[in-house]
Design a protein that fits this description.
- The protein has 681 residues and is mainly α.
- Helices cover 62% and strands 3% of the residues.
- A four-stranded antiparallel sheet has the order 5-6-7-8, with no helix packed on it. A two-stranded antiparallel ribbon has the order 1-2.
- A hairpin with a 4-residue loop joins β5 and β6.
- α15 runs antiparallel to α16, α15 runs antiparallel to α20 and α16 packs across α18.
- The two termini are 52 Å apart.
- This is Calcium channel YVC1.
Length: 681
């Protein structure tokens, strides 16, 4: 391919500054979008650009030996442990001295243009160091510093790949580094492989791609925000989000697996794809719109159910049409959310901004479903289910705001603060339960005393709990007064102690923790936004075919297609599954095909219109047009000859016609002086 240029390591390092200025100052995907005919890479091209062994034919090897993933992981671990044995902070590691003595030597030693697994191996070590710091109290701070070094080295190696490989081929190479699957036990001894994987969860067959993980997934899991915020990573994340880079995602377990075909990382060209391309349903940008549409339907059915909950002539003994539609559609939506959790695991899913809202609504809907089923089976006239369902209103309306503004820093901070708030509140409730039990037992001992007579209005455990809750929030001091009835001294003492610890100490600590969390997020707002965007992108690419069926058709697919998969062969099942998916999603797939084809056509029209605008109507058009195309070859040769020499080289400034040579300066005679040539100055 003419546009796919490769560089040897010597040329790459020698031309790094030139590549940086040419690649980073321009839109890395502009050529991909404006020239879609040249944007399609076949599987052979992908395999050629993704070779991981220097001895493969057709690749320009660096001459360095490419180690297996297993060996590289342990090599990096030994190097990092040797280099870092003190608890350095991030600012210290990014200082010039530490950068020159630690980070840069590791980058120079580990960077190999032919090895695409280095970033993955560094992030795997970062995950392990972060987990070890919680188990090894003595080396906790040291392991955090080692994990930080792994992230910094990974970010710099990824930047080198980005600088040395510009254009479309560079985008494809970066995508293979970040979203291709790697096996941590690649080329490991068979005894170690058997022993280490004997007790692991059995995985589904994926045609040789089992147990593989992506570097981007490890970056999200370890919260490597420096790496994710880098230009190279964001270039890939943006391309995956918009569907320019497509690949078959990897997951541990799929509810409705269909792994007959595995598509490698490639660049997508819409006009060469099929009209009903069912794989576009897993493009994150389109997937988010589809899921938002599904949630809008759920919210509309919920509102209709609540508005007509009393309009059923049979009372609560039968379900109305809106309630039945809501219950069925929501069951399919819950299945979709459960599949999303299983897809990448809870650790990754919890990074989503609205994950805690979804889990809360699922719990409410589960309680509603069980209670409502009991009411319908027993034909009860009482109604407990619908009042429980009303508590979902603040959850659903809040989630709409999170969906519409996922990049808003306020919602990002709210997500992190909510996590800290729930953790600290659980600890406080667990500890303060002792005060409730103490007051209840104090009341019981007083009640059993023969010298005390109680009336019918004696407080129960719920009333005592309400008193403590009011004291906690500083709303009412009735509990402090009434506890004197339990014991003149001990009752008020327990209540006042609870007020000091709960209302004063706990709330002060809570405010301090939330303030610290909010300030950290605001200090690094750009990286936080980019990290959440990467999470949203990674979660949007699905491998489970259950996501291709919209609710409530996914439940029908689970009941029919899953048993069918056990009966038919993989090839026949794949054909039937794809046909059913296309039939169910015909309107959506047609809209996607029309949108993508018109977008590519309109982009070319906008480019031509923008150029005409610069030429004709804008007084600043020349300033922009002078950078729109590469200078001619003769100009580049002149610049390399003049700027690339030593001290004795001449430096010609083309526009002024001035040549500086040695200590003298010669100026070209202007045309107004009636001559040409040079004069000394």
């Amino acid at each position: 391919m003419g546009a796919d240029t490769t560089h040897s390591p010597r040329e790459a390092h020698g031309d790094r500054d030139c590549n940086r200025s040419r690649d980073l100052d321009s839109d890395p995907d502009s050529d991909l979008e404006d020239n879609p005919e040249a944007a399609l890479f076949t599987e052979d091209d992908v395999a050629l650009r993704s070779r991981r062994r220097a001895g493969d034919n057709g690749s320009e090897g660096s001459g360095e030996e490419v180690m297996p993933v297993y060996v590289t992981i342990h090599r990096i671990r030994r190097l990092v442990i040797t280099a870092i044995d003190d608890p350095y902070t991030l600012d210290q590691l990014r200082a010039p001295r530490m950068s020159m003595q630690v980070v840069r030597p590791l980058v120079d030693r580990l960077y190999n243009p032919d090895d695409l697994s280095t970033v993955y191996c560094l992030l795997a070590n970062r995950v392990q160091f972060l987990r070890s710091q919680s188990d090894e109290a003595i080396h906790q701070s040291v392991n955090i510093a080692r994990a930080t070094v792994c992230e910094l080295v990974a970010a710099r190696i990824l930047r080198r790949f980005h600088e040395d490989n510009p254009g479309r081929s560079g985008l494809l190479l970066l995508a293979n580094i970040l979203v291709s699957g790697f096996d941590a036990f690649d080329a490991a001894p068979e005894a170690i492989r058997r022993m280490s994987r004997a007790e692991q969860w059995p995985v589904q067959e994926r045609g040789g791609h089992e147990r593989k993980l992506m570097a981007l997934e490890l970056a999200i899991l370890s919260e490597s925000k420096i790496l994710i915020a880098s230009v190279a990573c964001q270039r890939v994340v943006d391309a995956v989000y918009r569907g320019l880079v497509v690949y078959t995602p990897l997951s541990l377990v799929d509810i409705l697996p269909d792994h007959y075909k595995h598509h490698p990382v490639s660049l997508y060209e819409p006009r060469r794809a099929a009209i009903l391309n069912h794989r576009r349903l897993i493009v994150p940008q389109l997937r988010n719109l589809i899921e938002l549409f599904h949630f809008a339907i759920l919210l509309a059915l919920y509102v209709l159910t609540m508005m007509h909950c009393n309009g059923n002539e049979h009372g609560t003994r039968r379900m109305g049409i809106y309630e039945a539609a809501f219950a069925i559609f929501t069951a399919g939506w819950v299945l979709e959310q459960f599949a999303a959790i299983v897809e990448h695991g809870w650790e990754v899913h919890a990074q989503n901004l609205w994950s805690f809202l979804d889990v809360t609504f699922i719990l409410i809907y589960g309680v509603y479903g069980v209670v409502r089923a009991v009411e319908l089976l027993l034909s009860l006239d009482i109604n407990f289910a619908l009042p429980m369902l009303t508590t979902a209103a603040p959850i659903l309306l809040t989630r709409i705001a999170f969906n519409l503004m996922p990049d808003n820093i306020v919602f990002i901070a709210l997500h992190a603060m909510m996590r800290d708030f729930m953790r600290l509140t659980f600890i406080a409730i667990w500890c303060f339960t002792g005060f409730l039990l103490g007051l209840l037992w104090l009341m019981r001992t007083t009640f059993n005393s023969p010298s005390v007579s109680w009336d019918a209005d004696a407080p129960n455990w719920a009333t005592v709990g309400k008193w403590l809750l009011w004291i906690w929030f500083g709303l009412d001091g009735t509990g402090i007064e009434r506890t004197a009835e339990f014991h003149v001294v001990l009752g008020p003492t327990l209540a006042v102690t609870f007020a000091f610890l709960g209302n004063t100490l706990f709330l002060t600590i809570l405010v301090a923790i939330l303030t610290n969390t909010f300030s950290k997020i605001m200090d690094n707002a750009a990286a936080e936004i980019q990290f959440r965007r990467a999470v949203l992108t990674f979660q949007g690419v699905k491998s489970d075919s259950i996501f291709a069926y919209p609710p409530p058709f996914n439940m029908v697919a689970l009941v029919i297609m899953l048993p069918l998969r056990l009966i038919l062969g993989p090839g026949i099942f794949h054909t039937i599954n794809v046909a059913v998916i296309r039939m169910v999603n015909v309107p959506v797939l047609l809209l996607i095909a029309l949108y993508e084809r018109r977008r590519v056509w309109a982009r070319g029209v906008r480019v031509r219109a923008r150029a005409w605008h610069h030429f004709g109507l804008s007084p600043y058009g020349d300033i922009q047009l002078v950078f729109s195309a590469e200078p001619p070859r003769e100009v580049l040769d002149t610049l390399e000859r003049l700027d690339g020499g030593g001290e004795g080289a001449e430096c010609e400034i083309i526009g002024l016609g001035r040549v500086e040579s040695g200590g003298g300066v010669r100026r070209r005679k202007g045309s107004g002086s009636g001559g040409s040539g040079w004069e000394s100055g």
